[in-house]
TrEMBL record:
Designated name of the protein: Thioredoxin domain-containing protein
GO-annotated cellular components: cell envelope
BP terms from Gene Ontology: cytochrome complex assembly
CDD domains xref list: TlpA_like_family (cd02966)
Native organism taxonomy: Bacteria, Pseudomonadati, Bacteroidota, Chitinophagia, Chitinophagales
Keyword field contains Disulfide bond: yes
A molecular function GO annotation: oxidoreductase activity
SUPFAM superfamilies in the cross-refs: Thioredoxin-like
Length: 550
């Protein structure tokens, strides 16, 4: 549940959250991926999401999983079984196995639980991979290996997972011993405005020391060398990712943020410590390219590098970069950064994930540009057939919704009330978003259940997009591909300013972040500013129902 501020080519850093790294369903996973896993560095985001909603857990997915279990050979499966003590039946048990890294509900499958709390499921696992087991809004990392099995016990009362037995017991017991999923002390509260020296002495250095102690525990274990190497490497990358999360989400001073990011990542290397690399490495790679952005633009300012000269670490001028970002989107800029700085194998796998992210957001414009560049650079990539299938699927969605009369685009809007007054007699839910905003697009995935909850009720949905004028066609294409029924209008950074003043006129928090949501009553008056967002589900539904009842 991230927040975005509109920004320059360097962004504001909030997009580093692993909650933004979108992949696809577990059942569509390709067997050639090694160690896909959730992103423990954003465990707070997991808690906000909670157990992914039931509409991702349909019976079709469970039946397909059972079919795969029956057809995939035993050596390519991981058997997970166990029991939930004091099982009430009120909550769902689920497992998430991302494509490469990051957490998203698309990769989550519910595990059927019997009335006595027992469960038993065979998971496709043709390579070592990390997964997260979810129950009662808590998550625990598991290490899955082909042909192995694990029996676990979850106590519903004390909310603790305990590995009990099985051939995968040793490595998973070790994950519990080192508290792999621990939320660092500095992410449990606001750090305030600390100077850089204090940040380094009270946070960075103690945390590296703490993680090194965990690494020592891993190295002293009786695990095979390959497991120790993988877990130790993941711990190291997790350290960088947690510190990155601190800077990007908790630090408000931009100069201090930049200095801290540089001080942390200057001690890192992009070359992976183990290959095939684990999920924390690929999360680290994404943070690393953002670190290079930070370092490059600080150097540009310090040395007064002309906009026509190459940007350090990226090899193209600021003028050229601006043109590329405006035309192809920011993922293309980071594609350039990865080409210039990552090993080729890393570039290939990392950018495949980025294309899948764009596909999951149904962002055809950016996806097809990045896919074209990817195919040109990696013509023989094993990912190309899947990429082609995804792009063609988005094009079919665009064609399907080209004449959708439920998607209404209006022009010449001066005031938000120009729109609201046309909807008197209905409660209006206003979504302020942007096609450049990852958290905004993440929330759009939850509009289906929201609209279903108010079908045939007097509720209207309005979408105010903030995009610059050169992205007019991208915006129109995006809402068509997504089949986003409702009333739409677009403003740029300048023309949205008076509308923000209207929306926040009576609210003490004047921050203009994205996404934001507002509810208007049936008379057209503001009812709720900064309302709950779509993935808040029942809390939002109650808000809307309360306004409907007035």
């Amino acid at each position: 549940m991230g927040l975005y501020q509109s920004g320059t080519i360097t962004g504001n850093g909030n997009e580093s959250s692993g909650a933004q790294e979108n992949t696809r369903a577990l059942l569509a996973l390709h067997p050639f991926f090694v160690c896909p896993s959730p992103f423990p560095a954003v465990s707070s985001h997991f808690q906000q999401y909670g157990i992914p909603p039931p509409y991702y857990w349909n019976m079709k997915k469970i039946l397909i999983l059972l079919f795969l279990s029956a057809t995939v050979p035993a050596w390519a499966q991981f058997q997970l079984k166990g029991k939930i003590l004091h099982y009430s039946g009120k909550d769902s048990l689920a497992i998430n196995i991302p494509l490469i890294y990051g957490f998203h509900p698309e990769n989550t499958v519910r595990i059927p639980v019997a009335g006595d709390g027992t469960f038993n499921i065979a998971l496709p696992a043709q390579s070592i991979r990390f997964a997260s087991l979810y129950y009662q809004r808590r998550s625990y990392s598991l290490l899955l290996s082909p042909g192995k099995e694990l029996t676990v016990q979850w106590d519903e009362q004390n909310k603790q997972l305990q590995p009990l037995s099985g051939s995968a017991l040793q490595e998973n017991t070790l994950l519990r011993k080192i508290n792999f999923d621990e939320t660092p002390f500095f992410l449990q509260h606001e750090t305030g405005l600390m100077p850089l020296d204090e940040l380094n002495s009270t946070i960075r250095q103690p945390y590296f020391h703490q993680q090194q102690q965990k690494t020592n525990t891993v190295q002293a274990s009786d695990l095979p060398w390959s497991y120790k190497k993988l877990i130790a490497a993941e711990l190291r990358y997790l350290t960088f990712n947690h510190l990155n999360d601190l800077a990007r989400s908790n630090m408000r001073n931009r100069a201090a943020l930049d200095s801290f990011i540089i001080s942390v990542f200057d001690s890192s290397r992009i070359e992976p410590e183990v290959w095939p690399a684990g999920p924390q490495y690929f999360a680290f790679a994404g943070n690393y390219v953002r670190y290079l952005e930070t370092k490059a633009f600080r150097q540009i300012k310090k040395e007064n590098i002309p906009s026509s000269e190459p940007i350090p670490y990226f090899g193209i001028s600021l003028d050229s970069a601006t043109v590329l970002v405006n035309k192809y989107g920011k993922p293309y800029w980071r594609w350039i950064g990865s080409l210039q700085n990552f090993p080729p194998d890393v570039t290939e796998v990392y950018n495949y994930q980025q294309i899948i992210n764009l596909y999951q957001y149904k962002d055809l414009t950016q996806a097809q540009h990045l896919a074209a560049a990817f195919r040109q650079r990696f013509p023989a990539s094993r990912f190309n057939p899947d990429i082609d299938q995804k792009i063609n699927g988005l094009r079919q969605m665009l064609a399907q919704h080209a004449s959708n009369k439920d998607i209404v685009v209006i022009d010449s809007v001066r005031s938000i009330y120009d729109v609201i007054k046309t909807l008197k007699g209905k409660v209006v839910y206003l979504d302020v978003w942007g096609t450049w905003c990852g958290p905004c697009k993440e929330q759009l995935k939850h509009t289906g259940p929201l609209k279903a909850a108010f079908k045939n009720k007097a509720v209207a949905f309005v979408y105010l997009d903030m995009d610059e004028d050169h992205r007019e066609n991208t915006w129109r294409e995006f809402i068509k591909v997504n089949g986003l029924a409702g009333i739409h209008f677009r403003k740029n950074r300048q023309t949205i300013a008076p509308i923000w003043k209207e929306l926040l006129a009576e609210h003490p928090d004047k921050r203009e972040y994205y996404p934001q949501y507002f509810i208007f009553d049936k008379t057209g008056k503001p009812a709720v500013a900064k309302a709950f967002q779509p993935d808040d589900k029942e809390k939002l539904y109650r808000q809307i129902e309360e306004v409907l009842a007035r």
